[in-house]
Amino acid sequence: MDRFTDDIHTLFDARYRDAIERLEERYAESTYPEHLGLDVQWDDLADVNEDVAKMVLRSPDTGQDTLEEALREYDHTEKKLLQASVRVEELPEWATYTVGEARKGDINRLIGLHGQITKRTEVKPKLEEAAFECHRCGTMTYIPQGWATIREPYECQGCENKGPWRLVESQSEWVDHQVVQLQQPPEDARGGVTASINAHLTEGLTDRIESGDRVTLNGVFKPVRVKSKTRHDTVLLGRSVEIEETVSDEVNADESVDEVLELANSDDPYAVLVNSIAPDHKGDVHLKEAMALQLFSGWRRTAPSGSFHRGSIHMLWLGDPGTGKTGLMDAGEELAPRSAMTDGTGSSEAGLTASMTKDDFGDGDEWTIAAGTIVRASGGLAIVDEIDKGDVSDLDALHTALESQKVLVSKAGRHAHLDANTSLLAAGNPTGGHFDPTKEFVDQIELKSPLLSRFDLIYTVREKNDDELVRDISRHMVDSRTAAGKHALGMELTEEEREQVEPGQDPELISQWIAYARENCHPLPTEEAKDRMVEYYTDLKVSLPERYDGAEEDDYDGPPLPVTARKQMALFRLAEASARIRLSDTITVDDVERVIPKVDRSLADIGIAPEGASLGEVRDDVDVAEVGV
């Protein structure tokens, strides 16, 4: 052990001396010094002594004792750090898994599990070592405790009787304790059941993570007997926590960065993206372009005054059945670095946002906070299909969350704020299932005006009736299914067939492109771009009624386009996304001109488009004030 201690002290001298000095300062002032710890990277241990590094993984308790004893004996501290812990993090790749991947060889070893926190309990005191007094002779017996029911002594060491016992709380040892549920991230479990594990956190690890956080929990992988069965459950006894702040880990190699830069600097990066979104879906290019912008999104910030500006782009598709909305949404889920998908048929308010309930999760009847879809997708894309099938009162819970990007959960005097930096892609059918050409748009949707106003883009997806277009789509569907069949049978495809079923680029590379842009690009507009955005919104807001076919100035007593300032901000966010696709920190006039048709088309689809919109439709028979776009 002396050799180990000398090597650990060498490591402290070389890389952790400043951190230990800061720890000593905090230790002297702390009311709870047992909550403090020194974070040490595993690779650093392996560099000075590979045996110590391996011992930490294979014999976690012995390794932990060795590291903490070395910290207590470190000569450069004025005060002994008697209660501070050492937390080993950044475990090697071969000892780090996604939830559900650990196996029997990892039992009783220190491993890292990557996942998302979906539930957590409150922090409560837990018995670490219970002091029992014998009622007959008064002898004290001390019993280490687990995390379930209290373990009592078998017999008294004084009178050798088997009780009765009295728990002496004042002489027992207690720790702060919290249980969290770590679940496989939704984008890693597409098409299957998500694995999860309960993790027990104590002392300085408690209250550091919230429901919805993406983390790597490093801890001891333990089996738990389920009654008298041979098949055991597992838990993780936490030793350290690494919180994932961004999605930048998606771009994890220099060669990936080079490929991303090559795509962004190609002649037409926007076409590359569109061709990579659901290649077997013919048409609806405007939806694919809008999805590409939504995946890259704008960037959020807070002004010195405290006002919050969201960057997430929200989009709603309202369409006839069988128009391919779900297939496009599946493509968005695949490309987004982070995503979570649900449907309105079975999603309650709690399932969409978050909930606080009292249940048996943890050690008993405790309050737990569970993350819903938009919280679990924070930093990425939340997808809600069949949104029209959900209860309208449940959908109202999305209203504040979509704008503030926070979910507030309150119950029984308890409060929690969860991050929901999430773009929402929602789709549904009009009232009655199909669009009725004799009815106005606002009469064919049950979503309330405040929620509709949160969507930057609203598109209608209607059945195609043009003979040539229907024939073209039909041919594409038949050819795509044939090509998919030939691929499944291992047959060679023609170049044309490959284009019909293969994306323009590897979806994983597109995900890395999105992650890189969201992490590294924070574009601001040129003066010319700002002028163009102002010009567009002003023209949209106050132009004369003559812009509407058949409208006379004397017949119109209100603004021709009662849109709100939210549309100006939507245009700004879309322009930011356009610049991010190019990995640029500058929004140009070209970016603004690129996204204006997307806004025009959206307005046209709900019946209030300005002149020159992509659909060529201009109507003045819709009371848009009810929609509040």
TrEMBL record:
It comes from the Archaea. Keywords: ATP-binding, Cell cycle, Cell division, DNA replication, DNA-binding, Helicase, Hydrolase, Nucleotide-binding. The keyword Cell cycle applies. Residues 342-356 have a biased composition (Polar residues). It holds the Pfam family MCM_OB. One of its GO terms (biological process) is cell division. The keyword Ubl conjugation does not apply. PANTHER family: DNA REPLICATION LICENSING FACTOR MCM FAMILY MEMBER, DNA REPLICATION LICENSING FACTOR MCM4. Belongs to the MCM family. This is DNA helicase. The lineage of its organism: Archaea, Methanobacteriati, Methanobacteriota, Stenosarchaea group, Halobacteria.
